[in-house]
Amino acid sequence: MANEDLDIDTDDLKRRMDGAMQALRQEFASLRTGRASASMVEPIMVDAYGAATPINQVGTVNVPEPRMVTISIWDKTLVGKAEKAIRESGLGINPVIDGTTIRLPIPELNEERRKDLAKVAGTYAENARVAIRNVRRDGMDQLKKAKSNGMGEDDQKLWQTEIQEMTDEYIKRVDDTLETKQQEIMQV
């Protein structure tokens, strides 16, 4: 069975599901587990020069010690906007401004904060599941088109099964990744 003839591009569906997993991993990297990490600020976008810009493109991110992240903002006019973006990011960290440097002291996680972070991780995982299901829906729509273009019912069932199995595999990966992240968050 050649994909090209039937207009069902499973490689594209797989690539898009991989993209949803990659986005989930990046979001999970931003969740703090009580230790400082440069990746925790990666998803933060700063309103710089009229465009949403990743924070690591308006300053240098460093981890000088295990419980501190520093961001040296290159343009002093962006310090306030960067601080605002950090406060609104949901990281739960109060930035401290020192000239053009923003310090992010990472507090110990208390039980309540751990539970909150575990819930946030669950939300990120659900967003990834929705993205994967949307890719599945696109695949099923391609199948409907192929059927109306003369694809046989047996072929259609085979493709439906393949797309569903791919979806189930990716949803399981999301669930496994979530479980690992939640255990990491709850670990004292």
UniProtKB/TrEMBL annotation:
Q: Where in the cell is it found?
A: Cytoplasm
Under the cellular component aspect of Gene Ontology, which terms does the record hold? Answer: cytosol
Domain of life assignment: Bacteria
The record's listing under PANTHER family reads: MITOCHONDRIAL RIBOSOME RECYCLING FACTOR PSEUDO 1, RIBOSOME RECYCLING FACTOR
Give any single GO term for biological process. Answer: cytoplasmic translational termination
**Keywords of this protein's UniProt record, alphabetized?**
Cytoplasm, Protein biosynthesis
Q: What is this protein called?
A: Ribosome-recycling factor
Q: Say which family it is in.
A: Belongs to the RRF family.
Role of this protein? Responsible for the release of ribosomes from messenger RNA at the termination of protein biosynthesis. May increase the efficiency of translation by recycling ribosomes from one round of translation to another.
Which one of the record's GO molecular function terms can you name? ribosomal large subunit binding
Q: What start and end residues bound the annotated signal peptide? A: none
Species name: Palleronia abyssalis
Q: Which HAMAP family match?
A: RRF
Domain Ribosome recycling factor as annotated: residue spans = 24-186
Q: What's one Pfam family the UniProt record gives for this protein? A: RRF
